[in-house]
What we know:
CATH architecture of the largest domain: Orthogonal Bundle
CATH class of the largest domain: Mainly Alpha
Helix content: 10-25%
Number of domains: 2
Number of helices: 12
Structural class: alpha+beta
Largest sheet: 7 strands, antiparallel
Strand content: 15-25%
Number of strands: 21
Radius of gyration: 23 Å
Amino acid sequence: MRNQFLCGLCGTLLTGYLLFSASCSGTSGTDSGGDTTGSNTSGSGGGTQTSTGTSTGTSMTGGTTTGPGATTSTTGSNTTTGSGGSTGSGGSTGSGGTGGSTLGDGGPNGLGCTGVELPAGNRCGVVAQPTVAAGGQLLIDNLEPATGDTAVCHHIAELDGRKGSWNSGKDPVSPNGTVVHSFEPPGAGGAPGSTRAIHIVGKGLNTWGGYLAVPLAPCYNASKYQGISFWFKGDPTKAPWMKLSIATPPTAQAAEGGKCVQGSGAGNECYDHFSVHLFKVSNIWTRYTITWQQLAQYGWGQKVPHTYRPETEIIGINFSPGWGSDTADKALNKSFDFWIDDLSFDVSGPFANTGFASTVSAQVFNDGFAHYRSGPLNSLYTNAYNDIVAALNDPRFSRIGREGSADERKREIAAFMAHVVKESGALQYAEEIGGTTDANKIYCRSPDPLYPCAAGKKYFGRGAHQLSWNYNYGQASEYFGMGTSLLTNPDQVAQNGPLSWRTSMFFWLAWLDKDTNALLVGPHYRFLHDGFGGTMRAINGAPISSWLVHRCSITV
């Protein structure tokens, strides 16, 4: 009956403000056995995307809805562990391809400034040395008119050792295709004060399509900065996804400034650049940020050691289209239409004011959870609304509720809250029921060379989304710069309200498969790709077939 329950939640949790209504179609009987329950053995973290576009991922949450002191609860048997898996859009969305330079003038298949070609070979130690940034100069390029501009040529601001120009190109297997960029007024809603942005349009494209790219120097060490930000919009009816990637020597071939030697077959190919999950294209101008620690490979190409830091050897920043699945990515005669503005190292917020906080008021938030809560509010969540706003103003989580169409943004927020209702009993519980007393609820994967379990510690579900298992506590601790603190003292997640919500955001958006240094497909991406049912799969491990029977559609 879990699907019935959540179909109701996704439509009524924020009733009156979001104006959502939910309609469940199909039969409403019991689940078809998709959830992995009982022993809570969630596997070791597969989670790699391959060039065929499929991926599997372990669930972050492993516990039942919880209760400190274990008052009675009707949700005590609903274990939520399992390994997810959904169709991804991995290998064929890689930018750069095998024929166009992403770092000079675009090569024979591209456009850009002339006379700025960069040398072939490893530009971060052989044919050139890294330019090491001193920090403090945040602007990379605001795309405003400058001396030397032409219809297709524009140089970035020469600050902190940076020197480069924009270029674009197409896949060489698109003989009749075109990729053209231009500099145009951004229209309404763009970056404050902007009079010009870069507009790139691709038509008649095959395979991976095309790219827009900019080098910051032959090789640039940006470790003095935290990450990058940019303004973006596009036409979702053409390419519905955009991939931002950082080209580096171990992922690019020599012709493009790298040292990767192209092989054949999964795991042997170049161009599995460091990236974050695909951005859902929207016609709404939105400022996005990524931090260096979010970068990882997709997992279909040559593996780079997890200790490698791509921000220390940047040979190009690439923007490329994606079409949502391996089949769609390989289709012929595709198109895309993107706009980029104000590329910067400034990753400061706020962000929630154009996402969660602009969609949900504190009163609607509090009333919505009170409606579903059968007991008192747990003290962990006393300041929940403000803690969520603060967490979403962290640049690492700024994409939550701010991607896709206006409706998709509202629906993702509703989906996030629906899972909080399910996992925490609508903010009634901070710990998994029986977590402290049940000897079987240890949730320790051993051996684990990266995140070994601390002696005597148990990693049962804690917090708003029930963070579970040692490798998830360990990675979250590492992600927040806390060393091994959450491994040695996991109780913090159930004792510190702001930290509890940050671990929820980490689970929703940011966690990686550290065994392979590859991106895992979490609830944020799965919601945008597969809808509300996709988030259930990511959290509970339910197969997509069960959601075809018990699917939940949300309309505004």
